[in-house]
Amino acid sequence: MNNNNAKIEVLGSGCSTCEKLYKITKEAVSELGVAVKVDYVKDVQRIVQMGPMQSPVLAVNGKPALVGFTPDMEKIKKVIQDNL
Amino acid sequence: MSIFYPVQLLADWLTYSVFGIAQKTLLASAVNFFIFDTIKILILLSVIIFTVSVIRSFLSPEKIRFILSHKNKYTGNAVASLLGIVTPFCSCSAIPLFLGFVQAGVPLGTTFSFLVASPMINEVALVLLFGMFGWRIALIYIASGLVIAILSGIIIGRMKVEDLVESFVYQNSINAKTDIPNMTWPDRFAYARDYTWDIIKKVWIYVVIGIGVGALIHGYVPADFLAQYAGSGKWYAVPLAVLIGIPLYSNAAGVIPLVGALTEKGVSMGTTLAFMMAVTALSLPEFMILKRVMKTRLVLIFAGIVGVGIIFTGYLFNWIL
Fold first, then answer.
1. Which residues on chain A are in Cβ contact (under 8 Å) with B94?
2. pLDDT in tens for each of the 321 residues of chain B?
3. Is-catalytic flag, A53?
4. Is residue B198 part of a domain?
5. How many domains in chain B?
6. Residue B190 in domain
7. Could you say which of A33, A59, B94, B317 would form a disulfide bridge with B270 (CB–CB 3.0 to 4.6 Å)?
8. Contacts of A67 in chain B (CB under 8 A)
9. How far, in Å, CA of B104 to CA of B67, rounded?
């Protein structure tokens, strides 16, 4: 699968849970073998603009897919596959 | 029989049999108190934080914002304060919450009611108050916290201080109705488990130190020793307690066991409640963070109003209780 337009973002305020989510998401993407770039965004206004008021947020193609907690690897893979 | 009876048995066994400390000595009393309280508080914290986290997974801040953007001025303050009780609050989420509320059209006064109630009435403080002083004091704490949050929000709302909010805040506006993905039951439990573990990891050392110092005071300081310095007759005790409480935010979990012991030695209840409220609601790091979205004057107004409310509550309960 090679999707050039797809975009995965991890948004957070730089707290430890946010960094953990970013790390697991990158691993999940490489294990899934999808060629999608994972960005780490620290702009709070961007989180709020997207809708949520909690961090971390995992957004796929600009839409929040996970909000406020960091689940395990399997769940993250499923969320990415479902929303990509 | 108390549900903590088995914990008392364990504490007795450890103190008298394992450590071999002679019964009825000061050392035995301090060690026994320390073991019993540490285990009891950690069990209470784990169970209650887990339960509250599961409940909270049904009431996301986004849902709360939707509710608040549809309330009128005064019911808004009350609902915001009540919702503040179940919402977790760490100073790192103060900015997204503030922006998210204000930009979705929630009135400033309502937003402040939430910002006061959310950190002040939190489950860690309640568990510890309940564990140390019983349910009556825990309820008094909740009720006075709610009154302070509602009144502070109404007063700030009346003051028309919108011009003291940084201008970029009002340049963006967002929709109050957002589609946040739903959580499944396994998600809720995973969230509650992680959240509980995070909090316990963060606070256990303060709880242990707080109880440790508390145990020393319990065992070695004569009863009523502190009444001469901080009893209800001393007018300066309440404001002093509030001032000391401001920089202690992150240590709320350690402060309460300590305060439990101080109360036993003569610090009056109103002073204790005021101190607890200052520790949770007036936090220096939170003020620094809020300066990113509002002018220093508004932070000072906010701190001033809440501070006066807390001092008033302290005097009130010193007088009543």
1. none
2. 577 888 899 999 998 988 888 888 888 888 888 899 889 888 988 998 898 888 888 888 888 888 888 877 678 899 889 888 877 666 667 788 888 889 888 999 999 999 899 888 888 888 888 888 888 999 999 999 999 999 999 999 999 888 898 888 888 777 777 677 778 898 889 888 888 888 888 888 888 888 888 888 877 777 777 777 777 778 888 998 888 888 776 566 777 777 888 888 888 889 989 998 898 888 887 888 888 889 999 999 999 999 999 999 999 999 888
3. no
4. no
5. 1
6. no
7. B317
8. 60, 62, 180-181
9. 11
| B219, B252 Cβ separation under 8 angstroms | no
Chain-chain contact of B175 with A51 (C-beta, under 8 angstroms): yes
Secondary structure (DSSP) of B185-254 = HHHHHHHHHHHHHHHHHHHHHHHHHHHHHHHHHHHHSPTTTTHHHHSTT-TTHHHHHHHHHGGGGGGHHH
Nearest chain B CA: its distance from A35 CA (Å):
24
- Amino acid (1-letter code) at residue B299: V
Domain that holds residue B219: 5-173+204-320
Structural domain includes residue B259: yes
Tell which of A48, A63, A70, A75 to mutate to test the B interface (max B CBs under 10 Å): A48
3-state secondary structure of B303: helix
So what's the ipTM on this one?
A: 0.72
> What is d(CA B107, CA A37) in angstroms, rounded to the nearest whole number?
39
Cβ atoms < 10 Å from Cβ of A81: 13
B311: tokens are 């001092």
* Nearest by CB: A44 against B61, B95, B174: B95
Does residue A55 belong to the interface with chain B, where contact is any CB pair within 8 Å?
A: yes
- Which of B180, B182, B198, B293 has the most A C-beta neighbours within 10 Å, making it the best mutation to test the interface with A? B180
Task: Name the catalytic one among A3, A13, A14, A15.
Answer: A15
Would you say residue B146 lies in a domain? Answer: yes
> Which amino acid would we find at residue B270?
G
The arrangement of strands across the sheet holding A38-41 comes to: A38-41, A8-11, A57-60, A63-67
Catalytic annotation present for A37? no
User: What DSSP assignment string belongs to B71-132?
Assistant: S-HHHHHHHHHHHHHHS---GGGHHHHHHHHHHTT--HHHHHHHHHHHHHS-HHHHHHHHHH
